[in-house]
Specification:
Elements: E1 9-13, H1 17-28, E2 33-37, H2 40-49, E3 54-58, H3 66-76, E4 82-87, H4 91-100, E5 104-108, H5 112-146, H6 157-169, E6 176-179, H7 186-195, E7 204-208, H8 214-222, H9 239-242, E8 247-251, H10 258-270, E9 272-273, E10 282-283, E11 287-292, H11 296-301, H12 307-313, E12 316-319, H13 330-341, E13 348-349, H14 351-359, H15 365-379, E14 384-385, H16 415-433, H17 438-445, H18 449-459
Parallel strand pairs: 1-2, 1-3, 3-4, 4-5, 6-11, 6-12, 7-8, 8-11, 13-14
Antiparallel strand pairs: 9-10
């Protein structure tokens, strides 16, 4: 149990000198540095002056009882593992100690092996907790470093209004609903709200509600108790507990089932929920930022989304305009993406290539433009990007966004071939819009999922094709 070149420091707090002596001798034999306190007041004075790796604390003591000492210790050193000594039959006080934050308790007279095993677990807990805190801090720094305000590239008046709203709502606790088509930058807006909020140093958890099967999403969000279902071998915290004190971003919130919508509403109204299979009410302080590519007002009218939840989510309502409504941003976005993917090479688009980008309808919005520019940088042999490097469904003004059927490849051109090409393009379009979530794509196409799977196999469609 000894650390290289460093001893563990333990504080033993008990009014019985014989008990302190026995524990001290036991721990010294395990290479611990041990200090003793005969009462709670003395223990707190010692804890104010130095740090300990573990505290062994008796519940029953004069001057100040162990539970009171525990409360003060958790304020002084929140992550300090405290092991309580309890007399046989004092289960109620032991339970109270665990609620306050004790790591564990051992009953008197204690078993030596049990006590050492408990201390070992406490030290491992302290070590892992410290690592988690360091990793969370680093993650926050990385997130902050990855997200910069200049990632928002827009000169459009409509987007400038969005930027101003972000600045106003970010410091508040208000729930935010972000609506917009796929690829418009809803997650960037959510990141900006977190980045400029007072919770920037707290946990920031992102969940894509459309990417997790409905049967698992409840457990992912709210956690579960041991034995709640077949594979629930241990208790698990959900994203709401992990995000306590911070921000939870619920992407594609419109995909939630009615049951989950009800649980989300309860959290928004009362700040409490239950784990799957649990009875205990858990309270959390989480700021929710939600996003969807659906029109939730229309979804409520059709009965597919709870009206009361909709009103709770849209305390602040941001609607991100599609790229086709702010075409003046395309040159600025192109410059931004060329710098991002150019790897210090100065790429330039020809006038013809820029005109093609200006006249395309961009069903995939900014994300599609980003992908097009990234591919163009890869395909371009020199520093000039021409129209031949642009992988777009249509390359000429006035044409549809769909690829034209090349009649020269069919001799003779059959109706079956034409329909197959059209069907393949429509399926690809739906899969792209649904980010290759096949359940959503099937809903968009209004066909059965099994039919969609057959079509994907028939046309040998793969994500890289879109």
């Amino acid at each position: 149990m000894k650390r290289p070149n460093q001893q563990y420091k333990a504080l033993v707090v008990d009014d019985e000198k014989a008990t302190r002596t026995n524990i001290r001798d036991l721990l010294i034999a395990e290479s611990f540095a041990v200090e003793e306190a005969a009462d709670g007041v003395a223990a707190l004075e010692m804890a104010k002056k130095r740090l300990y790796d573990v505290v062994l604390l008796d519940i029953r003591m004069p001057k100040m009882d162990g539970l009171t000492v525990l409360r003060h210790l958790k304020k002084l050193q929140p992550h300090l593992p405290v092991i309580m000594f309890t007399a046989f039959g004092t289960s109620e006080r032991a339970i109270e100690a665990m609620k306050i934050g004790a790591f564990d308790y051992v009953t008197k007279p204690f078993d030596v092996d049990e006590l050492l095993a408990t201390i070992h677990r406490a030290l491992e807990y302290q070590k892992l907790s410290a690592e988690v805190r360091v990793l969370r801090k680093r993650l926050a720094e990385v997130e902050a470093g990855d997200f910069q305000p200049d990632q928002f590239v827009s000169h459009a008046t409509s987007m400038q209004k969005i930027f101003k709203m972000i600045g106003k709502v970010a410091p508040s606790k208000a729930t935010v609903l972000i609506e917009g088509e796929t690829g418009t930058g809803k997650e960037l807006v959510a990141n900006a709200i977190w980045y400029h909020s007072t919770r920037r140093e707290a946990p920031y958890v992102k969940v894509n509600c459309a990417a997790i099967p409905e049967g698992l999403l409840e457990s992912e969000l709210f956690g579960h108790e041991r034995g709640a279902f077949t594979d629930a071998h241990a208790q698990r915290k959900g994203h709401f507990e992990v995000a306590d004190g911070g921000t939870l971003f619920l992407d594609e919130v419109g995909e939630m089932s009615p049951k989950l919508q009800s649980k989300l509403l309860r959290i928004l109204e009362q700040g409490e929920f239950q784990r799957v299979g649990g009875k205990e009410l858990l309270k959390v302080d989480v700021r929710i930022v939600a996003a969807t590519n659906r029109n939730l007002r229309e979804e409520t009218r059709l009965g597919r989304f709870r009206k009361d939840l909709y009103y709770r989510l849209q305390v602040v309502h941001l609607v991100i305009p599609p790229l086709r409504e702010r075409l003046e941003d395309i040159p600025h976005l192109v410059t931004h993406f060329l710098k991002k993917f150019g790897r210090k090479r100065d790429f330039t688009l020809t006038h013809a290539a820029m005109e093609i980008l200006r006249q395309y309808e961009w069903p995939g919005n900014v994300r599609e433009l980003e992908n097009v520019i990234e591919r163009a940088v890869v395909l371009a042999g020199d520093k000039f990007i021409s129209s031949e490097h642009l992988s777009l469904p249509a390359l000429h003004a006035g044409e549809s966004q769909w690829k034209k059927i090349d009649t020269s490849t069919h001799s003779p051109l059959s109706l079956r071939s034409i329909l197959a090409n059209v069907e393949k393009d429509v399926i690809l379009q739906a899969l792209t819009k649904a980010r290759w979530n096949k359940t959503r794509a099937a809903k968009l196409l209004e066909i059965d999922r099994r039919v969609l799977f057959d079509k994907i196999k028939q046309y040998d469609l793969k994500p890289e094709e879109h």
